[in-house]
Backbone:
């Protein structure tokens, strides 16, 4: 009977075929000496002599990991199983390349930074990101295993004692994250970093009637105190998020938020990305690299200008790009864009969010962009 293929492969790849160390997980084909399950021993069209595309190869044995879910983890969707898993051996369960939070933190860097000096949620402390998230795909937001309230209740049973601690607040649906951070916090009981003043003071009746229910509904509740926001909402250009049923709660948490001003996330882009496709910021050059803050250019509650811009496009751009006043292409109503017959603005040549070209230009600056308006002489 011929020797296992690992004997031959091991003459060069001994670090792969060596006996397992204590506590080490070895991929079944490696353990059984069947390297040819994944690799062609002689020649192949793919890197590493793989028999098939990586995802197709993994699917042959792990079909159960490829079913279901309306949203998918980007490495999984891109067919890069080896982005998270070592295909041969690992000291981690599931052949993961690193412990849970260290591995996830390679892409989710804000998450990893938040852990420093903070109290960790038990699954995070135990490197069990998969206790709450499906690492491949899910029908729930953020790849959660279950609807949020159901997921939290699977460990934190809604007992009379818990209800009493929450002063009768309805502990259902996604209510948990209106106060608590699911990963880590420097505050007591994993409270979110930013707290609403009445909530922090225990003054529930500032917003709630003693007998139950809010003192007002929608925007009317918040503008009882936030009169400046009420003025902003009265401006002619409306933010649609301010006029639907959730109103202020589309962006802000009523009790405690992860970001400033009770924002639902520490990242403004994440909050805005609930309605506005974050893909607009993907490109070779992106505004996010310099200004990861939508409110630097847009009024979030209501505005006087199109697209909720804080001023005209030129004025918004010049508020940061001061050099444009000294050396710039002619702009303004006196200079017409021959493509639109409208005035030339910064947006005539630049995409305000991101571009596949340098300086967020709409075309290659070496020639293609210029000849859209200036006829080529040669």
Residues:
């Amino acid at each position: 009977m011929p020797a296992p293929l690992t004997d031959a492969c091991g003459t060069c790849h001994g670090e792969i075929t060596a006996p397992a160390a204590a506590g080490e997980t070895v991929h079944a084909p490696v353990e059984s000496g069947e390297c040819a399950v994944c690799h062609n021993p002689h020649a192949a069209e793919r890197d590493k002599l793989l028999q098939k595309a990586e995802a197709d190869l993994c699917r042959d044995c792990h079909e159960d990991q490829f079913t279901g879910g309306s949203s998918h983890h980007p490495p999984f969707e891109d067919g890069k199983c080896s982005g998270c898993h070592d295909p041969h051996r690992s000291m981690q369960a599931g052949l993961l390349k690193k412990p849970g939070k260290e591995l996830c933190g390679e892409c989710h860097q804000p998450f990893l930074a938040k852990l420093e000096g903070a109290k960790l949620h038990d699954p995070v402390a135990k490197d069990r990101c998969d206790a709450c998230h499906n690492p491949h795909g899910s029908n729930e937001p953020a790849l959660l295993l279950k609807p949020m309230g159901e997921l939290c209740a699977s460990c934190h049973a809604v007992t009379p004692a818990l209800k009493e601690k929450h002063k009768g607040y309805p502990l259902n649906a996604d209510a948990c994250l209106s106060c608590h951070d699911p990963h880590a916090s420097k505050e007591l009981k994993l409270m979110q970093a930013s707290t609403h003043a009445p909530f922090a003071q225990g003054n529930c009746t500032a917003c709630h009637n003693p007998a139950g229910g809010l003192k007002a509904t929608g925007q009317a509740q918040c503008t009882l105190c936030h009169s400046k926001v009420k003025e902003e909402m009265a401006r002619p250009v409306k933010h649609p998020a301010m006029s639907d049923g959730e109103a202020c709660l589309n962006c802000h948490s009523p009790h405690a938020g992860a970001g400033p001003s009770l924002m639902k996330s520490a990242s403004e882009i994440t909050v805005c990305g609930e309605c506005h496709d974050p893909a607009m910021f993907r490109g070779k050059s992106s505004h996010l690299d310099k200004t990861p803050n939508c409110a630097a250019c847009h009024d979030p509650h209501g505005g006087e200008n199109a697209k909720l811009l804080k001023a005209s496009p030129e004025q918004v751009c010049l508020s940061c790009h001061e050099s444009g006043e000294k050396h710039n292409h002619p702009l303004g109503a006196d200079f017409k864009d021959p493509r639109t017959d409208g005035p030339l603005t910064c947006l005539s040549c630049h995409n305000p969010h991101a571009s596949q070209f340098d300086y967020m230009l709409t075309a290659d600056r070496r020639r293609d962009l210029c000849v859209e308006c200036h006829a080529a002489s040669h």
